Amino acid sequence: xxxxxxxxxxxxxxxxxxxxxxxxxxxxxxxxxxxxxxxxxxxxxxxxxxxxxxxxxxxxxxxxxxxxxxxxxxxxxxxxxxxxxxxxxxxxxxxxxxxxxxxxxxxxxxxxxxxxxxxxxxxxxxxxxxxxxxxxxxxxxxxxxxxxxxxxxxxxxxxxxxxxxxxxxxxxxxxxxxxxxxxxxxxxxxxxxxxxxxxxxxxxxxxxxxxxxxxxxxxxxxxxxxxxxxxxxxxxxxxxxxxxxxxxxxxxxxxxxxxxxxxxxxxxxxxxxxxxxxxxxxxxxxxxxxxxxxxxxxxxxxxxxxxxxxxxxxxxxxxxxxxxxxxxxxxxxxxxxxxxxxxxxxxxxxxxxxxxxxxxxxxxxxxxxxxxxxxxxxxxxxxxxxxxxxxxxxxxxxxxxxxxxxxxxxxxxxxxxxxxxxxxxxxxxxxxxxxxxxxxxxxxxxxxxxxxxxxxxxxxxxxxxxxxxxxxxxxxxxxxxxxxxxxxxxxxxxxxxxxxxxxxxxxxxxxxxxxxxxxxxxxxxxxxxxxxxxxxxxxxxxxxxxxxxxxxxxxxxxxxxxxxxxxxxxxxxxxxxxxxxxxxxxxxxxxxxxxxxxxxxxxxxxxxxxxxxxxxxxxxxxx
Length: 623
Prior knowledge:
- By secondary structure, this protein is mostly beta strands.
- Helix content is 6%, strand content 57%.
- It has 6 helices and 31 strands.
């Protein structure tokens, strides 16, 4: 959803004056929670008690990554994503790209969105990691902890809102990038934007291909993105967008259980139309959207075995609309009212490889409708803010779910902030769990968790030094698990878990051309959780002398449950980025990326060795 900022820009400017001024002078400085001028979501999450981290387009560009998941793993404490090789996450059996936030995420418990629109497959409810690309992205807003008060189901453990670019200045601008490197990898990206008066448009395209670091792990992807908007007056604006991804990912299986001819071929699309309004006392908007996809899968076969004689297919959709308004009824207050509707489902079937005969499959759909209200009141010139909200969501399969949220934001000193937050998150059962395969159970209820959290952030030395810390406790109940009942497997709401931990982060611009940043997270779980390390430490050192830019990254992972029968995985990676920019009217940047230059052997997914030293070189033109 694309709207004007819900809170007045004047308030955001007063809240962090020195930090904003310093960011203007030193654009490479990293700030965790600076307010945004325009928010492409239902609410400005930075002014709620939620723990929010923003990754800017500058950070994404510096990474030279075409996938967003590695960028988030490096920059966000408490977040981790599984990988099975150099390129491609895939779907179906053996897929990677599981995202955990504070140990919560498996089974689509972290909601990914593009401009506030849910991005997950309507039949199986799984995430779609290969579609989370850097093409056309302005920034990423990650909420650590439940954000179901805003987004409903699947935002149980957190949410990731991928916010797309908008042309801000009159005229035409753009860039073209080409990269080449290890395993015959090639990556190309072109993007351009136009603004003339009240009209703006952006178009971008991306193509990636790689042979992968293992035989049989070839990967190919194409992504196309476009948006337009027009301001009819000072108060009304309308626009639309479309985003499409085509990808084929091959999976060689694990070292212990190799596979031949295992591949997934998917097409995903997202489209939306929106209109919003902005007045002195009223701000809001409405958006209608659809996310759809087609998946073709060959499950492969073991060496020496017999190839499968069928292909699996699925078609799914996830569509809906949202309407909301925020009222500024009196001084330092905001009341947001909203209505959400979502219709999702699809069908799946098999076809014979020789005759293309189609077997009977399953075709199901579900509806969810929700209303919510959020209240915020500021006191003492915004030194104290109290927030409370309630969401009521009704699902066609599970009935009603109440979702409360409450918190306090306290700013006791200059550029310091405490947040105290309580929130409930939930995930509704998907069609596979309700209706497909022997364990299905149409009487399943949603999973839910309660999150208690306190966080602190402080800017010192006129914004050059940033410190942050968070402490949390998570209580999860009614997890969907499969049990044997009367000799048959059945999905039941019987699982429980408790997670607790803390996170630390800092950045320090200690000299004009030098900056260091680091983040650490500790996680304790009472159940065994795969792809959620107990300890995660990331550090970065940047040096930008003149037109050069150098960056060294360090990632340390300890006690990672990666699926191996005994023990855990521990590893340390060192990565290097170097760039040089020349040209005045048309800046040209040449860059090199060297990952894992100590050639460390490690496996994020047991049996899937990650690559050793990898090299990528590239060039980028901006106009």
